[in-house]
Amino acid sequence: MALGKPLLQLEKVTKIYPPSIRALENISFEVRRGELLFVTGPSGAGKSTLLNLIFGLERPSSGRILYGDLDYAHLRRRDLIALRRRMGFIFQDFRLLPEKTVFENVYLGLEVLGIGGAVARERVERILRRLDLAARRDQRVETLSGGEKQRVAIARAVVKEPELVLADEPTGNLDPERSREILRILEELNAEGITVILATHDENLLRGHHRRILVLPEGRIVNA
Asked: Model-level pTM greater than 0.90?
């Protein structure tokens, strides 16, 4: 698939946590529309920090982040919240509500956007069928397997039809078979036009995939 114009650009981004922990150092790269980009490196290398910055959960200590023609530094809080609605985030620890059902967890992803009623229900049912979760729709999340929970997390992230999905170690707690299943789902979503940034320390996921890989050891990119 031919890639489009740059969707995201990072220019000399540095993130320092008090007192002087340099999580990211002088990071520069761009992501094009329709790309599936792997970001790899050992635990603690700064992968989660990078995704948090892109999602606007944290601010860089220096440097610039652009989403299309939007400069994060100039966005007010409400503008940043609006920008996040164009993204989906698959968190490493799922961030699901364990006492709620599968349907309720995914539906809440739309409800916070002000989308409800028949439109929301139809979209939720469609994505549950897509991810083979329809038979689990009324089960509480706490009763699911790890792989099923991760699929619910993916459903919640993509039900709002984002243009960019950020996946933070989406296979970190899964066995190899379930890991391949999750990667296949993300590749299918990417083939449909969703831009995906996948952060992982699992080198097995990278084998046999002709995708761009950013290597991020100790907060610095060694190839961009």
From this structure: yes
